[in-house]
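Q: My labmate handed me this sequence with no annotations at all. I'd like to see what the chain might look like in three dimensions before we decide whether it's worth expressing. Could you predict it?
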Amino acid sequence: MAKSYVWLDGKFIDSSKAVVPISNHSLQYGSGIFEGIRAYSTAKGPAVFRLKEHAARFMRTAKIAGMALPVTQKELEKAIVEIVGKNKLESCYIRPFGFYNDPRIGLDTDGKKISVAVIAVPFGNYFGDKDKGIRCKISSMRRINSQILPPQAKLSGNYATSVLASKEAKNAGAEEAILLSINGWVAEGPGENIFLVSDNKLITPSKASDILLGITRDSVIKTAESIGITVEEREVHREELLTAEEVFFSGTAAEITPIISIDGVKIGNGKPGPITRMLWDRFTEIVSGRDQEFMHWLTFTKQ
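A: Here is what I predict for the chain of 303 residues:
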């Protein structure tokens, strides 16, 4: 098995040595922050997708969490690019992680060391065969809002709701959950944004629905607009999902994943729809470096 490395506080170390005490603050209390980023194989070598946007969001999350990170955004971007080459990867998933590297029990974070790690691992299709699509269940859990936890921050603790919602959906025989906001609007999946197609328009929940403003979501919107598809960002009623012509998830892990049924109700004809397929095909062209219009979204690791 090939040796793998982790970037930790400015140094590459053997991944087997990247360990923390079991009483680590961020492990015990979910006080870490993270990003999810993909690199893709291209004719010019591996390319990180929307590197600057992901790194900037990581820095914003740190600010919201009150974490004084020991790295700058440029240093983080350099580490992300270098970890792909260090681990000799092509298509992969990259996880920057900021955490309180301290074993002392207690909620207080004052005086606790803050560390930043970056890992990179091989990664394929999160939901398997996209040609089949997935079945979803509207969760009994609700999406967090700013009165509970900051929805625009990728805090580790924010995702406890996501874990429970996803588990509930799978126990009911579905592949993934859909969460509503506290006010009952459609919000998002446990780790994905959601889109629907109705009357040839692309509709997605707005910021008012307490969604995470996903970077893949933004990529889908800009890609759709570039080919003349009207995009609406607004509050969405749950029944609109059931009567939509197409529904799909977007996200770093999910990429673009068709949803073929919700709560047992078939979406459209129960197969991935033409607009979903068109956007997925275009997304594939972009991330593989074959689309000149959006080439600026790629950062090549081999200069």
